[in-house]
Amino acid sequence: MNNFAHVVLKAKEETEIQQGFPWVYDNEIQTVKWHEEDGSGAKSEGLDGCPCDDGSVVEVYTNKGGFLGTGVLNKKSKIAIRMIGYEHADKIMENPETYWEKVVARAVNVRALNFSDTDSCRLIYGEADFIPGLIVERYVLSDSVYLVVQFLALACEIFRKEILAALKNVVKPDAIYERSDAAVREKEGLPLKSGWIFKSGSPEIQICENEINLIVDIAGGQKTGYFLDQKFNRKQIQKYCRGKKVLDTFSHTGAFGLNAVKGGAREVLSVDISEDAVELINRNIALNGAGKVMRAECADVFDLLKKFESEGEKFDVIVLDPPAFTKSAKLIQKAYGGYKEINLRTMRLLNAGGILVTCSCSAYFDENTFYSMLTHAAMDSHRHVQILEKRGAGPDHPLLLGYPRSEYLKCAVCRVM
Length: 417
What we know:
Helices cover 28% and strands 30% of the residues.
């Protein structure tokens, strides 16, 4: 036994870990074994009785003694261990700077297969890139590169220094902004924080995506300021929009609407409930000279869809890209009702043969539930629907087998008859 504590799982709890699932829940742990510092030998206790500090690097074993991998312990969280590697802890901790630079470089190199140096994209996608809780976005400006980072779990927070050093060495950014202000940190026993952590610049930046110029607020915008995961889905809608009347809902920055304009739409309305978002949409409309075709409106999408239906308003293309209606398994049924309502109403608002681009970004609202919801929305709206395309996040959001939550984004392109 090495100097790192050994976490032994209950019988038959190892299967998901062997399949690639990167978390160990507290109720899956049988015992923790460790060596006393006074040399009195090995000790064994349940999770609550072990003296290991939160943030300790531990090794995980099957009930029969098989080695599964290395993780970081956090007794404050229901996710008691997040896996950081599948080699022994002493190999990782012998030189953590070298280890994390290798992991960061591997993630960055994967993006190079599909993204050029001039593309903004997600460089690190948490567990799917084997750095649990870490999100890193690369925003490419005209003359510089900014990184926006989120340390969302203790498992990456304790290696903050090594990870930031690796990002600087591998990516060589001009500045790094931190957005570790998500409530999930509190479940990890971590304080919320945000601000510049390497050099500084303007938090309002301009990027180019799909040959469209976009203003992004990395300090005040949602999550990391922009949703890079929809890049290829936004471009794909262009081919459905020529000469069409388009409704873009939950618009955020107006990016879907601007892609509709680029695709030749004759009229685009982008809607968001946030006044700040609508102000930003209007600035992006002006930046791209799209004012003759596109306009923005501040409204509650649910209320606006009801209003359009009562007035007999019709559209040729509608984009539904709502925020996650559920962030827990307990609220799936409530979310189901919300998703179904907006999809049902938009199906009724489309002209015959119209296109509905409908999305869900909730990891808990899985693919089967999503398409079941669409089926029932079509039935209740008395429409027949063809699924023309099933899409998801771009290749900068790789899927980790055995970890269904990595496949969080669903995007269906539908023809509504």
